[in-house]
UniProtKB/TrEMBL annotation:
It comes from the Bacteria. Pfam families: DUF1275. The lineage of its organism: Bacteria, Bacillati, Actinomycetota, Coriobacteriia, Coriobacteriales. Keywords: Membrane, Transmembrane, Transmembrane helix. InterPro entries: DUF1275. This is DUF1275 domain-containing protein. The keyword Transferase does not apply. It comes from Olsenella porci.
Length: 236
């Protein structure tokens, strides 16, 4: 394992790049693919409830599609995580990033006149798997697909730090969540500029951070952590 007993898939640099990609996805789908955010499902559940409350059953039924994709992504990532481990070849964490690379290529090159829902549901599925797989960054519970909890954690831990200014653990938590929030914002900013310049193929830019993560995790699985494939990341 890496320093302090953490695997490479738990390191900050991995989480920074993954959450940057999540910001990229959000700006991409909102700008070019239907004006929605694909990273989480709270808004879709609210819209489903509102549609049901207004008797718009067709709209409510339609919203079950992204919600179901997210649910299935969580299920599949949990199931595959255990199955892949038994093969003793690669970690599920690594294979997931490889699958995400393939999804990004497909969606970026997908004809512009194809339904936006294909992109939305595919990214719903990918974000659910990523959210369920990457759970702790060097011992700090964290998400790589949305930032609501990071904002809450910054405020909560700043209040605690004000009472205990000497606490390195609290300072580390504040810096961890703040850095993840910052990378998410950077990803969304870069994506917005890229969308304006390169339109639908701008999603290919997300391959750069994803490729760096994939290369680092492959090196860990095949070289530096080859004998530790059975080790379980924190939070699982």
């Amino acid at each position: 394992m890496t320093q302090a007993g953490y695997l490479e898939c738990e390191r900050r640099w991995v989480y920074w790049l993954l959450i940057l990609v999540a910001g990229w996805y959000g700006a991409y789908t909102f700008s070019l693919r239907g004006g929605v955010f694909c990273n989480a499902q709270t808004a879709n559940v609210v819209l489903l409830a509102m549609a049901a409350g207004n008797g718009k059953w067709l709209n409510a039924s339609y919203l079950l599609l992204p919600i179901s994709a997210y649910l299935f992504g969580s299920f599949l990532s949990e199931w595959m995580g255990k199955s892949i481990k038994r093969l003793n070849l690669l970690r599920w964490d690594t294979l997931l990033v490889a699958l995400e690379v393939g999804m990004v290529v497909f969606l970026a090159l997908m004809p512009a006149d194809w339904p936006d829902q294909i992109c939305q549901v595919t990214l719903n599925f990918a974000c659910a798997m990523q959210f369920n797989t990457y759970r702790q960054v060097e011992g700090v519970p964290a998400a790589t697909t949305f930032v609501t909890n990071h904002i809450r954690q910054i405020g909560s831990n700043l209040a605690k730090l004000a009472r205990h200014p000497q606490s390195e653990a609290l300072r580390n938590r504040v810096l961890t969540h703040a850095s993840l929030l910052g990378f998410f914002v950077v990803g969304a900013i870069v994506s917005t500029v890229m969308c304006r310049t390169f339109s639908y193929v701008s999603l290919l830019g997300a391959l750069v951070p994803l490729g760096v993560v994939l290369a680092g995790l492959l090196h860990a699985d095949l070289v530096s952590e080859r004998g530790q494939l059975a080790a379980v990341p924190h939070g699982h």
